[in-house]
Amino acid sequence: MFGIAKIKDGLIKKIKSFDRWISEGNNYLETGDYKNAADCYYNALNKNSRDDNAWYSMAYALYKMGDYKDSLDAIDEALKLNPNNPKYHYLKGSIYYELGKYVDESYNLEDNKKYLEEAFNYLNISYEQNKQNTSALIMMGKILVYLGEFENARDVFKKCYKLNPSCECKEFVKLYDIVVKNIDSFEYIERGLSLLNSNKYIDAIKYFNKASELNENDELALYYKSCIYEYFRDYKKALSCIDTSLKITERDIFFSKKGDILFKLRNYDNAVNNYEKALDINNNLPYAYLGLGILHYTIEKYDYALECFDKLFELYMEHLTNDEKYMITTYTLIGKGEITNNTDFFEEALNYIDRQINIDMNNIDLWSLKGYVLFKMEKYREALGIYNNALSIDSNNIEILESLAIIYENLGKYDDAIRTYEKLLKLNPDDEKYINAKYDAEKSMFENKTTHKRLTSPLLKEITMHYKIKNIEIYIMEMVVKHIRKNNPLVSYYLIMYLNEYISSKDFSEIDALENKLMIEIYKYIENIRDIDDSTLNLAEQLLLSIKENQ
Length: 551
Description:
By secondary structure, the protein is an all-alpha fold. The chain is built from 28 helices and no strands.
């Protein structure tokens, strides 16, 4: 029976015409039966091997079966017969693309680069012959991504997007735009932060605004804008900016800053709540403990205040800049001195203030702090000299003049006190506080009385501090981790490349490994495999930790 069936089959193949085989092959092709389709085209070509379309159809069926080697042979035959058909070039490019694209974690670009380059060449020929071929453009863009030519890939994808706004490449264009915005916004943040640290608030906010314009989700730019509005006591705008930051990312320093602003608005319960949220995220955040300590001191809950100040003494603050550490420690020492009446704390505070003055001789706030600490130690004459030094920096500083007037009174120098109050009245005419103070000084002089007035503690004044990025690389790396969690490998990869401007892979072995992993993730992304591997995230988090520990 088998022999008869074979004979019949052979007779049928001889009897069927070329067109009949082609028709049957096309029917199989439409139903997705690529093997039978290929067999039909093979039989047709046995009838007529000079038909280029039959070779193309056979090549396509083999391509769909994943038989890329035989498919290449077949499409080459088609191109020999008809070298100018864009459809043939497109298929040959597609075959090479399939041979060179990402398959699994063992993928190595160098082993597949030749296929991708051949693919690009044939796809480009096809596109030049048919400028509406968006499929060719998409594959060409993907190949450029494989080859690391991201900007060129973006340009190709943009062409495709114009032809077909719903095409898959729009996601890459969107991600690339995020990359550019992130890099540019970093540069504006750096400039703005430099100006902010120099107390050039107006100039600084312009750069932070520019960063926000480039990247509306740049939470750090919004944080610093909040700080500047806080310096200007525009608490409504400050609160709006920090709330927007927190909507983007719930970071410890953002909650702490919101606590500062609510504290100044005398919304104490909500301020405490936000400080505690900051500490839930980071139990070693100095800003939150300082804010809580000063808040409790202000509302006269001294035991709670002392607990916060004690905690600050225990904290390892090496991740902060020196001026941040010195200022936080200075306020901590003053707080402990105020509550315990132990002058040793004031003595140590002087050491920290002097360190800062040696760095910034024209900082009037530091001279004012030093004057206050000397006053608390009852070293009035020394305090007098310090406040006069401060006055040489700003002769019309209200706070300094008030302090000088009080010290003059305590020293019994009523003439000097009265002259100082008169100067204050010139600056603030009809201010009843100074009218009454001048009257009291004149009365004490007339009655030859001694006074024991007190200066207002700096803890009861509006203290404004901001987080100073000691190393921008920490923030960049935090953004890398953030975008990995969001399945944005392209953004993360570019940020790592940008990070190389600040740190060396010689110092951090994880950098090269993470670059390689992110490139694999990019390959996966363009092949619509959108779940970043846990090991990539773990490596990024390890690198972030290493950078922090190295500061």
